[in-house]
Amino acid sequence: MNQRFQQVDFPYEQLLAIGYHSVFNGEKAPVISGMMLLPLKTRYRGPANPVNENETDIIDEAINVFRPALFYNQYKIKGEADRTLMYLFLYLIECCKQLHGMTNKTEAYRKLRDFAIQKSLPIPGEARFPLNDFFDPPKNSKEEETLQAYLQQLRQECGDRLVNTVFRHSETAADKHWTMFGKRRFINRCFNP
């Protein structure tokens, strides 16, 4: 047989495994609904333990890998911290929608703070939550309360940091290279289809 036509073993499995996985997957932290409740650098009250300001937390990681991660059609979970990252990706998409066309950094802060405390965003286990096949529902009402408080704290801090990132170059115009990601989906899902 001719060498040119011989089948080459291609590592398809490795190619599909390419993606961004959290560096916090090995950490010891409480887990609710399969989601790791990681410490945060935050000034908002909530169940998350505080982290030193010089350290990287899950929100920093999510913002850093958000844009490239949206180009993947599949996502293989390697740990509970990946589920937290997935939730943040969905929330960042919604934030980018909110920031589209914003011309004032102060107004953007206000808009995302109001958006973060809305009760209309679903949590794992609710019928409207787009990633229910990756998450377990909370086991009881105490877990549900803790998860809601953690997700609200996560959203508030994430929104503040995203505004700083989107308005990094100008106080009067949102960076279109960030806000355009409000039109994308993460593994073909988003909060509000």
From TrEMBL:
Gene Ontology biological process terms from the UniProt entry: Arp2/3 complex-mediated actin nucleation; regulation of actin filament polymerization
Alphabetized UniProt keyword annotations: Actin-binding, Cytoplasm, Cytoskeleton
GO CC aspect terms: Arp2/3 protein complex
A Pfam family hit: P21-Arc
Molecular function, one GO term: actin binding
InterPro entries (alphabetical): ARPC3, ARPC3_sf
Tree of life domain: Eukaryota
Subcellular location: Cytoplasm, Cytoskeleton
Stated role: Functions as component of the Arp2/3 complex which is involved in regulation of actin polymerization and together with an activating nucleation-promoting factor (NPF) mediates the formation of branched actin networks.
Family: Belongs to the ARPC3 family.
Subunit structure comment from the entry: Component of the Arp2/3 complex.
Annotated protein name in UniProt: Actin-related protein 2/3 complex subunit 3
